[in-house]
Every structure is written in C-alpha cells, then in structure tokens.
Amino acid sequence: MRARVLGPERLQDQGVGLQQEESANRAIHALLCDPEVRDQVDLVLTWRQGPQQSADDGAYEAWSARGMVRFSRRLDHSGGLAFELLEVVGENPLACQDPHALRSIEQESLAAAASGFSAEDASRRFIAPEHQSYPFAYERVAQLFDSPHAPDLVLSLRDWTFGTQPGQHGALNVRQSRTPLWFSGPRVRPGVYAQAARAVDIAPTALAALDFPLIDGRDATGRLASERGVAPDVYLRRQDGRVLEELLDRGATPPRHLYIVLLDGLHASELDDRLQREPDALPNLRRLREHAAVLASGSMVNFPSITWPSHTCIGTGSWCGHHDVVNPSYYLREQRETISPQGQQIHTEGFSSRDVESIYEAFARVRGDACLTAAIFAPFGRGADHAVLEGRNLCHRANLRALHEELARDEDPRWREDGAEDALKESGLDTRGIAQLFDLFRSDDIRSPDLVFHELMLTDGVGHHYGPHSEGLRAALAESDRRIGRILELLEEQGRLEQTLFIVTADHGMAPQDTSLRANPARHVGSAGIASVVADNMIWLLDLAVEAERAPDGRTGRVFVWENDRLPSGERPPLEGAGVRVQAHRVGMPPEVVAQGHSGPGGVFGFSTPAELDSRDLLVSVSHDGFNDRRLRLDGTPLALDLRRVLYGPAVGAS
Predict the structure, then answer these.
(1) Helices 458-466 & 471-493, crossing angle to 10 degrees?
(2) Which residues in 340-353 are b (16+ Cβ under 10 Å) and which e?
(3) Which fold has domain 544-648?
(4) Is the pTM of this model over 0.70?
(5) 176-197+253-318+355-512: which CATH topology?
C-alpha cells in the first residue's frame, strides 16, 4: 500500500495552479536564462498542482540551471514525514543535504577556492551552488507552501547575489541557514554532538528539559495525537520539531527557568573560529559553552532564512508555513495587499496564526498567572507579559534611564567613529534591552521572569554593514559577550543562575555579498513583462483564470474570465472588459481571426465558431491590464512553455 500524500495543508492559491502554467513557466525560464539574472539565481522553488486540482495531487519542484527535481511529501509507515523523488532531469539541485557541510572557516575557504573565488579575502569568500549543501531541503521547501500566504514562486539565490550590504541571508543553502545551538544548564549532558538539528527542535527540547506535560497537539504531519491514535506526544499546540533527547539527562533535576539568548544573524563558523583561536576572547559565552551540549553543526533555520519567519519559528516550534509569517513582507491574495511585519516592527504578533502556540503561551498554560515571561526586543513576543515591541512594558521608565547611563559603557565607540548608523542604533537598543532585564529582575512590584527570550541584535546589523567575517563582527561579538556577562551576573545575584537553562542560538546565518552587483533577481520578472507582486525573493503571479467551452453543435463558443486569486469568500471575481481574440489555425494557412471582443457582465465572451474546425484548431488569447496574458485552445488545453525542453534540451521533452 502506497503511503498517503501530504500536499499543502491549507491549499488556497499558493504555488502554481493549473491556470498559472503559462506565467510560471515564463517566469522560471526568465529567471534561469535571461542574462541579467541567470548568474544570480540558484533555485526557483514551487508546488505545482496536478490535474485533479487537490492538495494531494501535485508535487514540489526545484528548478535550476543544472537540473530540476520534483518530489512529494508523504506519511511514512511509522506515521512520520517522508519524501519521494518523482522526477529528476539533469542534476538534482537538492541532492546534497549534508547538515555538516561548511561548518568551519577552513571548509568555507576550500569551497570558495574550488568555486573560483578568494579563500583569503573574507569579503570575497563566495561559494558556488555545486559546493553548497541544502540541509532538510525537502521539508523546508514543502512546509512553506502549507501557508495560504506562501508565494507562487520563491527564489533561493546564489550565495553572494543579493542587495547592497556586505552581508546577507535568506537562501536555502547551509551557509545562510546554519546558526549556533547550545543548551547549557540543569539536565543537560555537556559535550559536543554530531547529530543534525533544526530550529523547530529548540522549543520542544527546552520544554522537555523543564518537565512540561505532553499534550494532544499536532505534530509535523499536521495531525493531533488523538487523530494518529497515540497518547499525547508533543509539548506545543503545533510542534514540527522533535526533542533532542540525546542532549538531556532525564534523571537529573529539571531547571526552573529558561533563558534564550539569540545573537541575531550570527554566522556559526565565525563564533566557533573565535572561540577556538582566541582562548581569552568571549569569556562569558565561553563560560556557558563549558557546561553546554553543543550541536557541532548548529541548527538549520526556517526557509526563508530571515528574521521574522525564523524568530517566530523558534518561538513556536513550528515552520513558517504553519505559523503564517512566511517572509518579512508578504502578499495577502484575498486582500490584494502586501503587509510587512518587519517594516512595521511593532505590534506584529497578530500576524502569526492562532493555530500555533507560542512558548510564552505554553508557560502561561502550564504555570498559570503567577508565571511571568519576557520578550526582550524579540520580534515575536505573542503571549509574553513583557514585550516592548508589542506595547507591553512592565519596567519603570525612570529606572531604565538611570540604568542606560551605566550600561552604555558596554558599547563599542567604533560604531560612532565609523559612522555606522545602523550598528550604533542597534548597540543602543541592546543596551536598552539589558536595562529592561535589570529592572524586571530587581523590581519589587513583580516576580522575576521564568522565561526570557532575549534578542541581541548587534551581530546582525554589523554583519550586514561590515560583513559576516569582518573586524566589525569581531567587535560586535565582544560587545554582545559583555552583555551576556551582565545577564549571568544578574542571575547569579538573584540566586537563579544554577536553576536556569540557557539556549544560545541565532535566527539565520549570513554570507558575504558582491555588492557591486546590486542584485535583486526576483524583480526581473517585472522587467520580463510578467505581472506579479514581489517581496524580497518571493513572487506572487497576477493571473487570469480562463475557461473555454464550445456548444455541442460546434457553431458557438464561450470564454469565461475571472481573477485567479480568490476573495475571502472563496470566490473568484469575474472580469468584465478582458480582451478576447479567437484565431483559427488551418494546416498550411496563416492564422485567421474568427472572433474578437471583450468579456461582458459575469466575465463572459460569446462568439461564433467555424463548424468544420476541431476545437484544438481554435486558439483563444485573453488579456487584461494588470494581469498576465493567457493562451489556450478552445478545448481548454493551455499553451505553456515546455520548460524541460527549453532548459535542458530537446531530448527531455514534456512530461
């Protein structure tokens, strides 16, 4: 018996539907072949609907210049996730999924040299796709298309080809996806561990260490334990991750408190290299690491590997396709508008789905009203009692001002001297975060937090501005280490240090960029004449849904035109005024226009047809301002580009 297919969980219009074959294939071809962008795009990823038009009838696709792969997501015989390859043309671009690849500066340097780039100049240490890895690629791609907010196409760029900043991230590759991951404190078995981990594993592992109860929640397959016929087996309402049991000593006394330190955008190999080469550097991080379970290859973050989706992933134990914050900015098809949590910055917790549970909400559920939780400048703070970015501030403003003056001594003067305004701002915000922490823990009005999710943002801003392997980043790490020292001293003062489980991680990696390119390849689809909405590396195609039918007597036909994207009601709005042309194609003769006009009320255009011609010989063209043109035969057959043939050669043909 074949395993059950698990297509997109909440299929609406994400991915490539049957009405989008033409525009999607044109876009993929342009992105991989047009000289303006072909050397910048690594992968174009999508889910494509099958002829049955159901979530379980279709396949995930990864297209690249070197080959393509189609795969499905299925339930395996044990009830977990499995992935089946359906088709490979040329080279499978996702074949290498080694989570241990490129985990050191030395390995990165060798890969850069093999790619034809500099091994010595950190700012030019670029790594070509053939020397990359894409850990957990099938799962990380598939999960994205579970959300109705997901795009039709998403790009993963070559390692060095985005934007104007010296450091960037967002891609599927290991270099931009790997982050440090340490667990330090009670119930942890210290040591270095070789197994692979994902960002969704962090929350369940922490809650298991804290002895939280198992609940009847949804696992990575989207099914409740009760639906799977098993006892409660997850710690959160939706839990895509697993408990890293190897790291835990279940027989030891559990911690009482949890402290997550997130060093935003920190490149894992840079941290490891600094600790190995400079024994006196980063004493406070080193102090945590000495008693930590360290994942040698770190953890692999959400795809896209970028701030808002990844923070929410860590804070819920679920991928972005389930918590619904799929990108820093994304298009809501049903509303016909683009929203931007990252652009908005504050009051963004409402963008996440209520079908997932935050780690703050889990603490409240288990420990009740007496428990206090804090999100210190963490972009995701839903359910936290103290979350300044959400307008919940339990601190005393007068105390914060006084504390800020004292704590500002930790700030490196180079940001001001270099005129690095973003770094200067983020350094100041990190100081304010420590001030909040001091006031919360020393307050006589409230109990100290049981959970702190603390974002230290300086490493991200400096990595962007100076590069991920720069002297600036070294200074940012040293400054962040001073703040971690403040945290440890405070918890020691409060008598909490020995009862606290620390997690040290990041929300994404980072790679050096060729800023001279000023590259933003997703925007090229507009230049190629393809109507779309673009946000970062995501593309939402603006398409027409067209159906054609012919009367049984062969004398008349009708064309129906709608907007392809549905409204909140689930209906597709009909389009009046769409231009329609019908051409007859006779063997050995030039095309003949047999009907031409515009769709009327209800999006309908009726016309007379030559009774002697087969419907396959009548070509219908439909156009409307703001949408991609459609071409199909009167029998309904779409006329889409044969991608396999044009990308990989005539011998491949259509399939």
Answers:
(1) 170
(2) ebbeeeeebbebbb
(3) Immunoglobulin-like (2.60.40)
(4) yes
(5) Alkaline Phosphatase, subunit A (3.40.720)
